[in-house]
Amino acid sequence: MTSSGLSRRKILQLSGISTLGALAGCASPLPGTDDGGGRAVTPRPTVTADPDTSVSLTATSGTIRPASDASTTTWLYDGQYPGPELRVQEGDVLSVELANDLQEETTIHWHGIPVANPVDGVPNVTQEPVASGDTFTYKFRAEPAGTYFYHSHVGLQLDRGLLGPLIVEERDPHVAYDHEYVVVLDDYLSREPRLPSDGGMGGGGMGGMMGDVRPPYEGLLINGQLPENPPTFDVTEGDRVRFRFVNASSATVFGVRTAGHEMSVTHADGQPVEPVEADSFVFGAGERYDVVVEATNPGRWFVQANALDGNEPPARAVVEYESTDGSITPQPPSSSSNRLQYGDLRALSSLDGVSGDPDRTFDLTLSRGRNQSYTWTIDGQAYPDADPLQIRPGEHVRIRMTNQSPVVHPMHLHGHFFQVGNAIKDTVIVPGHRGQVTLDFHADNPGRWLFHCHNLYHLDAGMARVVEYVE
User: Fold this and answer.
1) What total number of domains does the chain contain?
2) 86-100, 194-208, 310-324 — which is least confidently predicted?
3) CATH number, residue 72
4) Do 63 and 145 have their domain in common?
5) According to the UniProt record, where is the region Disordered (predicted)?
């Protein structure tokens, strides 16, 4: 558990799959410049209107109890794990005052929602980090509607528990449902997170099956609870129940199944898609899926989330019908026969500004560093010592990625949605072993934006670039 951070030793922290080929290398310099440089473009201003909702969050240390026999002193927002659910209406102005009661600096990033650059929460890129004892106010208009989350973006703080859900409700929902639950998935680390180069990881659950080391996680969590103490989702027969799944983990790709029920996937990364039936889905760190389940099968059933890259017992929650004897053992899910694929996703609306040929294309290679240290790179460069990807306002930008490593990389772009296949997303898994993904976005939010792997440890070891608007 932790929030996404990006820093390469404390500086900062920090997808369908295309068949298009990807070549190593960067886009050519911008026209009219000698080396790809240019004058920075002023970001759009922050919101000045009075807030519709004002909240305060305090980053502090506290104790969590994910099971009756497990407790951990860690870092929390308002003493809660996950942090308080922030819920607003689409278009509302949200003001959040962060008070830092930690003994080190911190920030908050608003994952997935395209805020103005100065309130994106990336230290030393969009703001100075918030020093111990200081406060900082983030104010932005909450749009579009969707399932998002917030987390620290400093170093490995995300893996200490600094995260929480952010729900922006549709004013006119396009999906009918009677009740909803937010389901936050995370990995559980009871000790201070460290990079392998600092002695912080071992071979991990699968003994390196996916070609990477893995933090010594002691379990997997749903809404802060280990599987021996699963949360319960109460349902009434005949209801349509919406589940908002958030992968807030630091390093885990989850496979999610619901026992006894099919899922109708209605949103990907908060954005509506044509409903598609599935009995399971896979999502990487930073991704979100909304599903609707028809409560037509009374009983007690497990919602189960397995780590695809670890051997921890699966995270579990219980779907319990109100008419069911609570002493009945919940039924586990059967093996999956209809797993959701990126190619199944079709957005209900198109993304503006990305039709036709792109104005600018970046061909990027994702790989492990060549030296003996634990380093991850984009085109052979490790953040923060990496060249920015420079773009101009109004451009249709294409990024083609080839993953030369055996490890999957959930790549996340701040400040923008992108089109990948027929879906609109902000985070996408790039498969290992020369897997390729192409994404297109419209350069409509000036500033300096982080583009990075949302595996926190890959990010902290260098797998990031800054996307920089220039004139």
Assistant:
1) 2
2) 194-208
3) 2.60.40.420
4) yes
5) 31-65
Per the structure block, which two tokens stand in for 365?
Answer: 């290679």
Domain limit, last residue, from 344, 369, 402 = 344
Q: Are residues 137 and 259 in the same domain?
A: no
- Domain of 252 in residue numbering reads as 180-344
Position 212 confidence tier, pLDDT thresholds 50, 70, 90 = confident
C-alpha–C-alpha distance, residues 180 and 164, integer Å: 17
Burial (CB count within 10 angstroms: exposed 0-12, middle 13-18, buried 19+), residue 208: middle
Residue 132 lies in a domain: yes
Instruction: Point out the domain boundary residue: 344, 379, 399.
Output: 344
Residue 225 is which amino acid? Q
Q: Which residue reads 């030393």 in tokens?
A: 124
